[in-house]
């Protein structure tokens, strides 16, 4: 289902291209050493998908599931943690994660989003859950964002999963005659009339899981920056340039 969001490439290849560039894969010997050490401390219970060198000497990027880990390996020891570029003053891991999320967002057609208000030159794309407190708080400020020239585009991410009450509410919102109004009613704690139709809610939830969305709201700016959690209109306007 998710493949139509990721262009013409097969799903796995699309994400491998995002993850690998601009680094090469680790050598067979390097990969074997990292895998062996991780298996020692996990009793072989981790699924390691990829090992590649990072831009920092001796530090490797290990992909497990939808997440990447930075690992420094020496002798019988490994160190896992964040990697910072002290010249650019950025968290390299977060930067890579943001790039992956922004790339995935760019493949989602606007027809599969719930658009709030008229199209504007600037926009933010938000993974949202109708039952999430900070999603509800953010929604009360959509008009303020619009008045400052930023449109809100919603993707559904019912945190409790497919087949739950939040999921069915998200489907009802999507299938409503007026999606924007139904979203507002749901986030105000009102009752949205139950509705069913062909919809992308499950696909968007699975996409969010695949690219590592950890919670809602997750806000993706037009410039590709990702904000995990609530942000005020003033912050979003400033971050959007």
What is Rg? 20 Å
Q: What composes the largest sheet?
A: 5 strands, mixed
Tell me what the CATH architecture of the largest domain is: 3-Layer(aba) Sandwich
Q: Give me the number of helical elements.
A: 9
The CATH superfamily of the largest domain is: Glutaredoxin
Notes on the structure:
The protein is of the alpha+beta class and 241 residues long. Helices cover 37% and strands 21% of the residues.
Main attributes?
241 residues, alpha+beta, Glutaredoxin, 2 domains, 4-stranded antiparallel beta sheet, elongated
Quick structural summary:
The protein has helices at 11-20, 28-42, 92-106, 133-139, 142-147, 165-174, 179-187, 201-210, 233-239; strands at residues 50-53, 59-64, 67-74, 77-81, 84-85, 90-91, 114-116, 122-128, 150-156, 218-221, 226-228. The protein is an alpha+beta fold and 241 residues long. It folds into two domains: 2-103, no CATH class; 113-239, 3-Layer(aba) Sandwich (Glutaredoxin), CATH 3.40.30.10.
Sequence-ordered SSE layout with sheet pairings:
Blueprint lengths: L10 H10 L7 H15 L7 E4 L5 E6 L2 E8 L2 E5 L2 E2 L4 E2 H15 L7 E3 L5 E7 L4 H7 L2 H6 L2 E7 L8 H10 L4 H9 L13 H10 L7 E4 L4 E3 L4 H7 L2
